[in-house]
Amino acid sequence: MRLKDKVAVVTGGARGIGQAVSELFAKEGAKVVIWDLLDVGSETAQNIIDSGGVAEFSKISVTNRNAVRSDLARINEKYGSIDILINNAGITRDKSLSKMTDEEWDLVIDVNLKGVFICTQEASHYMKSQSYGRIVSASSTTGVFGNFGQTNYAASKAGVIGMTKTWAIELGKYGITCNVIAPGFTLTDMTAAMPPEVIEAGKKLIPMRTVADPIDIAYGYLYLASDEARFVTGVTIAIDGGVTRR
């Protein structure tokens, strides 16, 4: 098992990519704590337990520093360490530049960027004290190339890459690696609701002519969270079927 006895916090772990990460990490031996605002997170945790893994669910907003701080203290007390932080939680509020409101901008930046900052800042205290940590955060191909109607989302995901490069410099001496996964078009509940013609048009832009399943992205997280990647830090790995090849 590649994560045997590691303690992993997965934000946004109830559904989609986060669910795939939570389930895969548990299969690889990690004790998984799922943070999400969706109550279905308790079902995801229970499914992991029923499959023989170790998991629990906490209803946590990544923008609530007090809640983040409190639950990390509880986790550390219960399990004895916090080894892995997966910053996966994120939202969209898409509008073109001329139509986007301050509220839509602020909400996406607050969750997708400030939430990653809060969780990383709080978790890194524990990782520094134990001289070990794996921090992997979610960006997107949109954070690299931009996308129509996603000014707020693109800014937040580009910001995650910049923050991560900085943390790699600051935290490396403590044995903490900081990396980014940038998923491309991935089949989740949200994308599955798109009209078929939109999905087909998206496939044509991908050299592999198909979209990712959440497990494809989860395996990237697994690599960066494992000791196999102990000397990998400050990088962004695109899992997108070749879209960012240039």
Overall description:
The protein is an alpha/beta fold and 246 residues long. It has one domain: 3-Layer(aba) Sandwich (Rossmann fold), CATH 3.40.50. The chain has nine helices and seven strands, in the order E-H-E-H-E-H-E-H-E-H-H-E-H-H-H-E. It has helices at residues 16-27, 41-50, 65-79, 102-130, 141-145, 151-171, 189-192, 196-204, 214-225, and strands at residues 7-11, 31-36, 54-59, 84-87, 133-138, 176-183, 236-239. Strands 3-2-1-4-5-6-7 form a seven-stranded parallel β-sheet, with helices on both faces. It is globular and about 50 Å long.
Layout of secondary structure:
Blueprint: E1 7-11, H1 16-27, E2 31-36, H2 41-50, E3 54-59, H3 65-79, E4 84-87, H4 102-130, E5 133-138, H5 141-145, H6 151-171, E6 176-183, H7 189-192, H8 196-204, H9 214-225, E7 236-239
Parallel strand pairs: 1-2, 1-4, 2-3, 4-5, 5-6, 6-7
